[in-house]
Every structure is written in structure tokens, then in C-alpha cells.
Amino acid sequence: MSSSTAANQVRASHILIKHQGSRRKASWKDPEGRVISNTTRDSAVSQLKALRDDIISGKAKFDEVASRYSDCSSAKRGGDLGPFGRGQMQKPFEDATYGLKVGEISEVVETDSGVHVIMRTG
User: What is the H or E stretch that residue 92 is in?
Assistant: First the structure.
């Protein structure tokens, strides 16, 4: 981690719930986008908040929830996006991640992709 770019990188995992306002209305668990197209933004947010509550309360583990519910292909890795630097993710996602301490979990974050809960892991 000697180079300055590596030092400025963060690592995060996330859970993405897509909805009818999402840029791409398909995912690994909904290839036809049938569920996503019928999911309102509000119901995506409330679903995500319920999942976040389970994680915060210790009822569920972040990576297990991500692998089951996330609409992102990172679900296969428990939501892990690996390390990234500034300018690589959508701005609200980047800002939220850089604003977290390692191990912290964000509130619901909205991007063009859908709604996310982010856990900073590095």
C-alpha cells in the first residue's frame, strides 16, 4: 500500500435493491426484470431498511443478506466490490462510502442503479 492511489482507496460491500426507476431493470436473480419492474422505489427502500435493521441488530450477517437479496452481481461475493478509488463509482455511492468508518454501515443510499446499503470494509 505504498503508492498514494492505493492509500486513497476504500473497500466496500453493498446490498442493492433495484426498482422501476433503476437504470437497468434486470439482475442475476431477476434476468427478465419482472420483479424489478413491479417494485416501486418506496417498496425497495422499505425492503432494504428491514434488511439493514436485521444486520444492525445482529439477526443477520451482511454478507449472507447480500448473497441472498442483492440485485448486484457482487452478491456472489457477499456483496464485496473490492477496493476502489474516487471517480470509479456513482457519486452518491462514493460519498457515502468515504464518509463511513471501516466496519460502519450506511443508511439507504440512492443511485441510478437503485437503493443501496453500504458497509465499508477497508
Answer: helix 91-98
